[in-house]
Recover the amino acids of this structure.
DNA sequence: ATGAAAGCGCTAACAG
DNA sequence: CTGTTAGCGCTTTCAT
């Protein structure tokens, strides 16, 4: 087949100059109705599609933004992506999707390639702080972080969920139910010091202390990324402390692990163990009993992040992080602690 | 900040011609070791990133493929996307993600815009048959369908799951358990004739007939896309026929609806009702009891589809659809039909 | 081994 | 109102 028609072909066929064609198609500048018609017809007849490549080279805008997430199969990331897609569409932008799998090296490579593509901006849930972000900025590319934001890069705007408020609310809810020995399952290096825990862990500790409850070291455990580690950590936590009456999982993968382990151990939920988790993914409602979860507005976050990209550089730099509220969705997985811990501990294997 | 460095800047700084810089960076053509060093250093010092725009204009390849799915938040689509991403990475291609939301008009618009972007190829779960696909082909863009393939477009290669074999295996499994009145919950226009059901429904009917079981009209119901319709259809099916002992949901959203409605109706699973569904999404294992599901290799499908794009046009046209096997993952949601339908029907409201 | 020059398809001055 | 022209950044002959 013959090569796709170019603006020149259209111009020739319509008997006009290329500039006129450009004017008609981009709707800029004055054109007489007659020529307009002729051009449009020629374009239609040739099935002409302007090339984004040519235009981009000239205008220095590609009309596409990069989106860097950890795993697109993660429901939170997927929801985030949906938000970005929705906003990008209203802006007429395309979305280049990339998965970092949480690997900083890979993230660096991705950002590098996005710069080559001359994307108009990058939206990312950063895997790590690193010079590649600064280098993207230097290349004149707008960057906005979502969900997390390394404190080393305050010049990069961010859209976050109010995890601190959410975790606090959840802890207060559990304490209000009468729980005194509440466990926490989070992510991170198990060997790292307490201060190294993320916002969720830190807030958990603070909230507990504020309520006058003791933060027991072995009630806070961290899993490394990955299903196996999550299961192992959950098993350790549940078996180590049969007197624990409630647990907060800091993410849906961790929540999944707790549910699975609790079932394996024949614990009744919530009679023997109350379970709550961060991120209200769809299966929370399908569980039996349905899981109480802290909903974070992933879609909105993606939408907002994309909007921030559009702001002019000056306003962007100056901006404080956008912090979106969370909501504790109460279902059946949490209840008052059982009065019969003896029974419970007899059931553990 | 000053504009990003171009190949010219690098050439000037290294004291060579632009052609030499191009040779060094693309690793093509002979270059003396000394100049090579100089060029590399100059490029590094200027933080030079070649522009994909300029290169693409010249080479007529953008290094990106379009991926058109229904909803990125659908676990099946997300898994598919992950496969595409994985393969694209090995090929050094970028992925432009688009969501059609199952709307043909939107799909047409998306394809049009992808053509403008001059993507090297398009991978899609088509919402509908339509001239936009032929027009993409005419524009010289490779297209490959995944998950479904309109029969009106046999010239477009496809990567599919063997739904027919999978549904048949599932029906046989249920029948083998002793079920005689098996329900089917699918998607599509409820008013359309029986022949209009998709492969899954058609296969369901055929398989039943082959087993000598009767296909009762009101045991096959269709829901329109959307959560509410799924719930309504599931409720209708379960309430209308209390004597039904097993149900096959033709998708995870439908499975979700059945699980929710069964719980609402206080049906015990699998004693009162056995449930199986197509698509082994993550929550299937978290349900209580865990759901028996027909696993389809979404990730592989995405990977393979991306591979097919890379094939030369001639081989691509000639190809028969790639059909990947499914696997019935048996969990606890299916069992022999209860001997006490009276009890069961007393429980329905 | 290396440089000069001709575009790739488009937009944006600038002339007319 | 409309045509001509000069690039945008890169690759690729074709000379040298």
């Amino acid at each position: 087949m013959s090569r796709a028609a170019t603006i020149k072909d259209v111009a020739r066929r319509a008997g006009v100059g290329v500039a006129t064609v450009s004017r008609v198609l981009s709707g800029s500048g004055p054109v007489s109705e007659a020529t307009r018609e002729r051009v449009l017809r020629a374009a239609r007849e040739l099935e002409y599609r302007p090339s984004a490549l040519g235009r981009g080279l000239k205008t220095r805008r590609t009309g596409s933004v990069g989106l860097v997430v950890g795993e697109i199969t993660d429901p939170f990331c997927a929801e985030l992506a949906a938000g970005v897609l929705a906003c990008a569409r209203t802006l007429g932008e395309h979305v280049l999707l990339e998965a970092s799998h949480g690997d900083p090296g890979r993230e660096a490579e991705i950002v590098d390639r996005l710069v080559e593509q001359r994307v108009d901006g990058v939206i990312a849930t950063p895997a790590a702080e690193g010079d590649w972000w600064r280098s993207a900025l230097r290349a004149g590319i707008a960057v906005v972080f979502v969900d997390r934001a390394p404190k080393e890069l305050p010049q990069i705007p961010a859209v976050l969920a109010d995890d601190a408020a959410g975790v606090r609310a959840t802890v207060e809810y559990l304490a209000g139910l009468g729980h005194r020995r509440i466990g926490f399952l989070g992510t991170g290096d198990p060997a790292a010091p307490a201060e190294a825990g993320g916002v969720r862990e830190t807030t958990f500790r603070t909230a507990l202390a504020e309520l006058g409850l003791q933060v027991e070291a072995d009630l806070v455990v961290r899993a490394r990324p990955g299903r196996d580690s999550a299961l192992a950590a959950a098993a350790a936590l549940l078996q180590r402390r049969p007197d624990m009456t409630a647990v907060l999982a800091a993410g849906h993968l961790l929540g999944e692990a707790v549910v699975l382990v609790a079932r394996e151990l024949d614990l009744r939920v919530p009679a023997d163990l109350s379970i709550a988790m961060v991120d209200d993914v769809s299966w929370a409602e399908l569980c039996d009993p349905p899981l109480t979860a802290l909903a974070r507005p992933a879609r909105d976050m993606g939408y907002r992040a994309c909007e921030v990209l559009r702001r002019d550089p000056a306003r962007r730099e100056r901006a404080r992080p956008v912090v979106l509220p969370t909501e504790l969705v109460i279902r059946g997985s949490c209840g008052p602690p059982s009065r019969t811990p003896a029974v419970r501990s007899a059931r553990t294997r």
Notes: The mean pLDDT of chain B is 94. Chain B is about 45% helix and 15% strand. The domain at 7-50 of chain B is CATH 1.10.260.40 (434 Repressor (Amino-terminal Domain)). Residues 145 and 158 of chain B are 4 Å apart (CA to CA).
